[in-house]
Design brief:
By secondary structure, chain A is α+β, with helices and mostly antiparallel strands. Chain A has helices at residues 21-33, 53-63, 110-114, 124-138, 165-176, 217-226, 279-289, 379-388, 433-436, 439-456, 520-536, and strands at 8-17, 38-41, 182-183, 230-233, 236-243, 250-257, 265-276, 311-322, 336-338, 355-360, 392-401, 409-417, 423-428, 460-465, 474-477, 503-505. In chain A, the strands form 3 sheets. In chain A, strands 1, 2, 4, 5, 6, 7 and 16 form a 7-stranded mixed β-sheet that branches. In chain A, helix 1 links the parallel strand 1 and strand 2. Classes of the chains: A alpha+beta, B mainly alpha. Chains A and B meet through helix 2 and helix 8 of A and helix 3, helix 6, helix 7 and helix 8 of B. The structure holds flavin-adenine dinucleotide and iron/sulfur cluster.
């Protein structure tokens, strides 16, 4: 960056770094409950508007093209498993499937209840009103499960996405196996909601909803921008947080406004309060990049735990053939959910997992060769396909907990740098020894469950796999975990940095553990809770 | 002597200059679109007869449209759990155009003016021999099909029409449908088998 380039200074009351779903929750709450001047800084580009999404979806279906072209920064190939390369206005939740289960009360107390992991400094009850608020903001369609498994104080904002004919048959089957299942809560409209259309089950929620029936953060940004409640700076990468000269407060965020032709123009954001809402990777990364002589290990890192305790969950997945006439394609991304195995009483060996069931066409697609190897053409292919689809297949998946080790970490990789010379992050997920010791047992127990489910339906397990790549944990979080003790955690129970009273880190990075269910609703509830504290203490 | 299509295919493969490749793609698309008889005759071999003339026409036209819309080097959907990016590969149009030419050439060797002029059984024999020689063992993603016959097959079998025919029900996968009606068993689809 040339030193002759003039630095722009942008002042505000609250500067939010990142524009993903956690940032959208914070901005929405602050805009509703305060008169603060809010600035949002996003490294990536604007997402294509809703009107273009049918055409983008079509290119995706026809050619496998990304429906979010250019939603990434060049040169950001990193070592280790990154959830997604996407960086754009709206963050990863432009791609997400909108699956929004709540975690269960046990998730926050695994040490006290089961003797494993670390208790959170907050409880399910502390988070419950914020779960509700997040569900209302996004618009979650859900079915109340049995109260003992699915505690909630108020109804879902929308009635559930109806079970398809296929899912109704599959629910009858799981009931025979002694499993209570219900319609998976999702941030998809079962009726017009929030100015957006009702879902028409065209089944491309991941990666793109062409009609806006699935919530994505761009809708919040559009609304807040139209109401002039925020100013959003896209294509602006924050490179460093800077300390006030005389205190431990954060005085500014040094950024670069990216251009297509060169490395960009420097911008400085000054604010009374800063909110780092950059997700599980880029939040810890920014804090580490912000090292200075007064904070040599990085901002908010007195404990040395910034980037540590990355967390998530693993899965086991099975395809089970069943003597049921199913019709795959009715609403394939929708599923059944059970929390029966998340809410287990303490036992000898720790295992908690969720359970989901989908329609599937695994192993039942059209094929070219018959079982005896004969090459088929014309009518033969269709005849063979019909014969093999007289009965159905269910996809069954269980996420199970992984307790993170301290060495499950994000570090700076000095061998790979971005266009501005900053080291990129390097990621490695590692289980705590107590969790590693439970892994085989967890897998074996879940596989036994799948076998018993198959048996209950006179079916057969066709295949069991872990559907994640090596080293990967799903719904990753952590890296700036919360705790009451500033020597072992980065932020307090509200997401406020122990070391800097005007700095909040929100959502995914603050998680202590990753539960065994999709996590984004919990990230949003945590972010809203942080926003409530931020507003209260302003 | 090389046919025009074969020549274009060779040229595009030999000199991968972006502009030249784009031009070769456009010419191959023109060729396939201008004389769809071979493609149509191939569709009759590959697709079930029950789709009828209208179904074969539709499948051929949609496949031609697919070829015309192919973009090289387009960013593909990001992988999950990785930072690696992927882009679409070289156009298959030039290769497929050459393969259509080859089908005609084989028909001529058998004394027919064109592939399309052959009886269905004779066409089937030729295609079977081609796919056997390629060791084709599965229906691949369209763009990666090693032979135009497989590409056409893969393209049609991915459509809602194909799956509705298979299940003999009006499922309409990936199309916009009322949410409430999903609770009912899909309406039956009467398939006239030939
Ligand atoms: C394909 C896919 C499907 C998914 N489906 C589900 C699902 O069904 N249910 C579920 O619970 N979860 C799902 N997830 C996960 C979910 O999308 C994420 O958990 C969630 O979106 C994370 O939101 P976030 O706000 O924490 O971070 P992000 O979405 O990553 O947002 C952070 C933003 O900050 C920006 N940023 C980063 N660093 C800087 C910087 N230095 N300066 C400026 N800006 C910066 C980034 O560009 C990004 O836009 C899915 C994810 C993917 C990829
Ligand atoms: S099923 Fe289709 S309409 Fe419904 S949320 Fe998903 S993509 Fe949108």
């Amino acid at each position: 960056m040339s030193s002759s380039v003039k630095r722009t200074v942008v002042e505000s009351d609250v500067c939010i770094i990142g524009s993903g779903i956690s940032a959208a929750m914070v901005a929405d709450r602050l805009a509703r409950t305060t008169s603060a001047r809010i600035v949002v800084v996003e490294a990536g580009d604007e997402a294509p508007p809703l009107g273009q999404r049918y055409a983008l979806r079509d290119r995706y279906l026809q050619y496998g093209e990304s429906p979010w072209p250019n939603d990434h920064l060049e040169g950001y190939e990193i070592e280790g498993p990154l959830q997604s390369r996407s960086m754009q206005v709206g963050g990863l939740a432009m791609h997400w499937g909108g699956v929004t289960p709540r975690w269960s009360p046990e998730d926050f107390r695994t040490r006290s209840l089961f003797g494993v992991g670390t208790d959170w400094p907050l409880s399910y009850d502390d988070l419950e009103p914020f779960y509700q608020e997040a569900e209302e903001l996004m618009g979650v369609a859900g079915e109340q499960g049995p109260a003992s498994m699915d505690p909630r104080s108020k109804p879902f904002p929308m009635s559930p996405i109806p079970l398809t004919y296929n899912l109704t048959l599959l629910r009858e089957w799981t009931a025979k196996a002694g499993i209570t299942m219900w319609s998976q809560p999702v941030a998809k409209n079962s009726r017009p909601y929030g100015g957006r259309a009702e879902c028409c089950r065209n089944d491309t929620c991941t990666p793109i909803c062409p009609i806006g029936a699935k919530y994505s953060p761009d809708f919040t940004w559009d609304r807040l921008r139209a109401a002039r409640r925020i100013t959003l700076y896209p294509r602006t990468l924050v490179r460093k947080l800077v300390l006030d000269e005389r205190s431990m407060r954060i005085a500014g965020a040094e950024a670069v406004q990216r251009t297509r032709t060169d490395t960009g123009t420097p911008v400085e954001f000054r604010a009374k309060r800063f909110v780092v809402a950059a997700g599980y990777v880029w939040s810890a990364h920014l804090l580490l990049l912000s090292a200075s002589s007064r904070t040599p290990a990085g901002i908010a890192n007195r404990s040395g735990t910034v980037g540590k305790f990355l967390t998530g969950h693993r899965n086991q997945q099975a395809f089970i053939s069943l003597p049921l006439r199913l019709f795959p394609g009715m609403n394939g991304q929708h599923s059944l959910l059970s929390k029966q195995f998340m809410r287990t009483p303490p036992s000898d060996r720790y295992l908690r997992h969720d359970l989901r069931v989908w329609e599937s066409s695994f192993g039942r697609g059209p094929r070219l060769r018959a079982d005896d190897g004969t090459l088929m053409l014309g009518d033969d292919i269709m005849r063979d396909w019909r014969a093999r689809t007289r009965t159905g297949v269910a996809r069954v998946r269980a996420y199970y907990d992984v307790v993170p080790d301290r060495s499950s970490e994000l570090t700076l990789d000095t061998t790979r740098r971005n266009a501005w010379g900053d080291p990129l992050p390097k990621l490695a997920f590692r289980d705590a020894p107590e969790s590693a010791a439970l892994r085989d047992y967890s897998i074996a127990t879940i596989r036994t469950l799948f076998e018993s489910m198959a048996k209950a339906g006179n079916g057969t397990v066709l295949q069991t796999v872990e559907d994640d790549g090596p080293g990967w944990q799903d719904h990753p979080a952590g890296g700036c975990r919360m705790g009451d003790d500033g020597s072992t955690s980065v932020v307090d129970r509200w997401g406020r940095a122990h070391d800097h009273e005007n700095l909040f880190i929100v959502g995914a990075p603050t998680c202590v553990s990753g539960s065994c269910a999709n996590a984004t609703l919990t990230f949003c509830a945590l972010a809203l809770r942080s926003a409530a504290e931020l507003a209260r203490s302003s | 002597m090389l046919s025009r299509r074969t020549f274009l295919g060779t040229l595009a493969a030999a000199i991968p200059v972006a502009a030249l490749v784009r031009r070769a793609h456009a010419l191959a698309v023109d060729d396939i679109t201008a004389s769809p008889r071979t493609l149509h005759a191939l569709a009759e071999v590959m697709l079930p007869a029950e789709v009828g003339r209208a179904g074969t026409d539709g499948a051929t036209t949609n496949f031609q449209r697919w070829i015309a819309g192919y973009r090289e080097g387009a960013e593909l959907l990001h992988g999950y759990g990785t930072s690696a990016l992927e882009r679409s590969g070289p156009t298959p149009a030039t290769r497929w155009a050459a393969q259509l030419d080859a089908l005609d050439a084989m028909a001529r060797k058998k004394g027919s003016p064109s592939f399309a002029a052959l009886e269905l059984d004779r066409r089937r024999e030729i295609v079977r021999a081609e796919l056997t020689a390629l060791n084709a063992d599965r229906i691949p993603p369209v763009e990666r099909a090693p032979h135009v016959a497989l590409a056409l097959l893969a393209h049609w079998y991915a459509t809602p029409d194909a799956s509705d025919r298979c299940y003999e029900a009006r499922i309409g996968k990936e199309t916009c449908r009322p949410l409430a009606s999903s609770a009912r068993r899909p309406m039956p689809l009467t398939v006239v088998r030939t």
